[in-house]
Amino acid sequence: MSSCDRDHSQRLSLAPGPTQRPSNLVSAATPPPPATAGARQGRRKLADAGDKEEEKMVSSSSPVVNVYPLANYTFGTKEPKMEKDTSVADRLARMKVNYMKEGMRTSVEAILLVQEHNHPHILLLQIGNTFCKLPGGRLKPGENEIEGLKRKLCSKLAVNSPSFPPNWQVGECVAVWWRPNFETVMYPYCPPHITKPKECKKLFIVHLSEREYFAVPRNLKLLAVPLFELYDNVQRYGPVISTIPQQLSRFQFNMVSS
């Protein structure tokens, strides 16, 4: 028996027997008297008012993010930005050395949104053929998070010309990730038994202007990846990037046409 059949048999077993029914009792078997035109119109007005009130509540409680078409932005290239490490093992080894000198590593990364086909896309930097990351990086000791993120964005994406000054509008912090040990594993919380985490990574949403000029290092590629591809795609993008759709779910996207 299918699940649908089982549900149906359970409903039948709860049906009442042939008992006497009061004449004013309305059931599914006895249709109610037809509503007047005025009553139907009143119900429609109430339903419309309820829908509008619900939309108003959602819009008032959700931060709004303007998302502009990808075609609005101009992309060029600039001198290569070489990575300091050639492998994950080298990066973790350097992290350990820096930790001994400076303490916990603090890094910041930017979520830059554009739209294509009326759907939000995230800008990612691709290194080589497979590895993708958000633009950002490590802060200097004592450096302000916002100013440090702007510095990193200028290094990775800004045009090296005073004629095109960048306008990085750093918004809310949408996620905080912790690295308990000198390993690749990170968590969206600091495990309670870890008293000295090795890294704290914060993700900020950065609001783009309607038009911007970007310059990408020649050894990197800039990709616009849709949210539906990132969602739950841990194998391809890792746990930090693949959970960005969930982190952005509380925002209301205003898709601005060109």
TrEMBL record:
<dbReference type="GO" id="GO:0005849">
    <property type="term" value="C:mRNA cleavage factor complex"/>
</dbReference>
<dbReference type="InterPro" id="IPR015797">
    <property type="entry name" value="NUDIX_hydrolase-like_dom_sf"/>
</dbReference>
<feature type="region of interest" description="Disordered">
    <location>
        <begin position="1"/>
        <end position="61"/>
    </location>
</feature>
<keyword id="KW-0694">RNA-binding</keyword>
<feature type="compositionally biased region" description="Basic and acidic residues">
    <location>
        <begin position="1"/>
        <end position="10"/>
    </location>
</feature>
<dbReference type="InterPro" id="IPR016706">
    <property type="entry name" value="Cleav_polyA_spec_factor_su5"/>
</dbReference>
<keyword id="KW-0539">Nucleus</keyword>
<protein>
    <recommendedName>
        <fullName>Pre-mRNA cleavage factor Im 25 kDa subunit</fullName>
    </recommendedName>
</protein>
<comment type="function">
    <text>Component of the cleavage factor Im (CFIm) complex that plays a key role in pre-mRNA 3'-processing. Involved in association with CPSF6 or CPSF7 in pre-MRNA 3'-end poly(A) site cleavage and poly(A) addition. NUDT21/CPSF5 binds to cleavage and polyadenylation RNA substrates. The homodimer mediates simultaneous sequence-specific recognition of two 5'-UGUA-3' elements within the pre-mRNA. Binds to, but does not hydrolyze mono- and di-adenosine nucleotides. May have a role in mRNA export.</text>
</comment>
<dbReference type="Pfam" id="PF13869">
    <property type="entry name" value="NUDIX_2"/>
</dbReference>
<feature type="compositionally biased region" description="Basic and acidic residues">
    <location>
        <begin position="45"/>
        <end position="57"/>
    </location>
</feature>
<comment type="similarity">
    <text>Belongs to the Nudix hydrolase family. CPSF5 subfamily.</text>
</comment>
<dbReference type="GO" id="GO:0003729">
    <property type="term" value="F:mRNA binding"/>
</dbReference>
<dbReference type="GO" id="GO:0031124">
    <property type="term" value="P:mRNA 3'-end processing"/>
</dbReference>
<keyword id="KW-0507">mRNA processing</keyword>
